[in-house]
Write a structure and sequence with these properties.
This protein is an all-alpha fold.
Length: 466
């Protein structure tokens, strides 16, 4: 439509050809563009909200700790020992002893800050890329330090949980020992005694489930910290990818020394999710890979202990608590009824229960004592490994590269292997000393017999003459 026709064009009508040729945006094009932008914005909002809901749902599902399926058979396909089943949830949690690796990773993240400081000093004064790269490295350095503190907090939390578990193994043994005099511990528990023992163990499993839930929630929070520092590492790596070609070109043009990108990428790969290809050699694994493997192993231990505790609690409830209550109710309700109905009810009640024979108190207390000593050995191991790490780091305060090598020594498993060899040597030394004491004792006895025989010979007296 021409402009001089006496009315204004509608928004959907194009302008004249001259306006279009001058590059002016046509009204209908602007309307369409706005409509598309609005649609895209609303679509983006809807997708974002849907994604947030999915993530929130996933996070809620993760917060509910899974329970590993219980197996009635051991690894050899045989029925599990009742005492083994009762103590298994508590014993399984000795695997929470990840402190040596966690401390090494904490130190590696903390000391890498100094390497990043040296990298920022080597950034040439070029264009805005230099400023952006400096800001990116400083931002990641701050994230790394914050994450190292989070690792320290998580390690302290696990130490507290291990102390709680060790204390619980002692307290549980004390509670059970009060149920009967010591001279009756070897007696097979009767119905009433079994109910009391089951009640003590159920209280223990309830406490254990609360500890497991706390540990699970704390582990999820730590996983969020891991995801955060991984995301910051990816952002820094992307910054390297973007700035490297531009800075290299500008440095060559101005005949300046370029930023040490190979060293920067080596640092990034040290942190990254890199998996060693050589079997049994974990020295090339990235820190993020080690963290993910470590947390996955810990979560499997939590899931297993949670499933076993839940299974044993249900089994004891059905076999002893509910059975005792049902039998007493059956007796009171059926007083005066004929014997046939009573027997029928007892048969129906018994058939719905899962039988579980509780071991005697002697076995239970001995098993708990062994568990307490296991946790004690774990604490000794952790203390020795921490002391060994401190000794290896001695004199390397201002040498971050050498300190990183010490952390790699721990993370590769060589520290643990060397420790076990030393412990094996100590055990062999103790055994050899015991054998030597036996030999000396036998030798003295032989010498005493020889002296006695010599003395009798001199007296010309024979012991078989009367």
């Amino acid at each position: 439509m021409a402009r001089g026709s006496g009315r204004n064009p509608t928004p959907w009508e194009p302008l004249d050809t001259e306006s279009a040729q001058r590059g002016e945006t046509l009204p209908w094009e602007r309307i369409a563009e706005n409509e598309l932008n609005n649609m895209a914005r609303w679509s983006s909002l809807e997708e974002t909200e849907a994604l947030e809901k999915l993530l929130e749902q996933k996070r809620d599902e993760e917060r509910v700790m899974p329970k590993r399926k219980h197996s009635e058979l051991d690894n050899d396909g045989l029925p599990r020992d009742p005492m083994y089943e009762m103590i298994l949830p508590l014993n399984a949690l000795t695997k929470l002893s990840i402190a040596p690796e966690l401390e090494a990773l904490q130190g590696a993240y903390a000391d890498s800050r100094y390497i990043m400081v040296n990298l920022t000093y080597s950034i040439p004064d070029l264009s805005v890329d230099s400023q952006n790269l400096t800001a990116s490295i400083k931002g990641y350095r701050k994230s790394v330090w914050t994450f190292s503190e989070a690792m320290g907090d998580y390690g302290a939390f696990l130490d507290m949980i291990l102390n709680n578990l060790q204390e619980e193994s002692k307290n549980l043994g004390i509670a059970l020992s009060k149920l009967q005099p010591e001279d009756k511990w070897q007696n097979r528990p009767d119905s009433e005694q079994g109910r009391k023992i089951a009640a003590v163990w159920i209280t223990h499993y309830e406490w254990l489930e609360r500890e497991l839930e706390n540990t699970w929630e704390e582990t999820l929070r730590f996983e969020d910290e891991i995801e955060g520092v991984i995301e910051k590492r990816k952002v820094l790596e992307k910054a390297f990818d973007i700035t490297q070609p531009r800075m290299t070109k500008e440095a060559e043009k101005r005949d300046l020394k370029n930023f040490d990108f190979p060293a920067a990428y080596n640092l990034i790969h040290r942190f990254g999710s890199v998996k060693s290809l050589a079997p049994g050699d974990r020295t090339k694994d990235g820190y993020e890979t080690r963290l993910e493997d470590m947390i996955s192993s810990l979560k499997r231990a939590l899931e297993f202990a949670n499933g076993e505790a839940s299974y044993m609690m249900e089994k004891l409830q059905k076999s002893h608590i509910q059975k005792s209550t049902t039998e007493s109710q059956t007796e009171s309700q059926h007083e005066g009824q004929d014997e046939t109905d009573e027997n029928e009810n007892k048969t129906n009640n018994a058939s719905s229960l899962t039988p579980f024979e509780i071991p005697n108190l002697q076995q239970q207390i001995e098993a708990l004592t062994a568990t307490y000593e296991s946790y004690l050995q774990v604490k000794i191991y952790l203390s020795d490994m921490k002391h060994d790490l401190t000794q290896h780091l001695k004199g390397k305060v201002n040498l971050p590269e050498e300190r990183i090598q010490v952390y790699d020594y721990v993370l590769s498993g060589r520290q643990d292997s060397d420790y076990m060899k030393r412990q094996s040597g100590k055990v062999n030394e103790v055994i050899n000393k015991k054998e030597e004491r036996k030999r000396l004792k036998y030798r003295r006895r032989v010498e005493q017999e020889e002296k006695r025989a010599e003395k009798l010979k001199k007296q010309n007296w024979k012991p078989w003459h009367f």
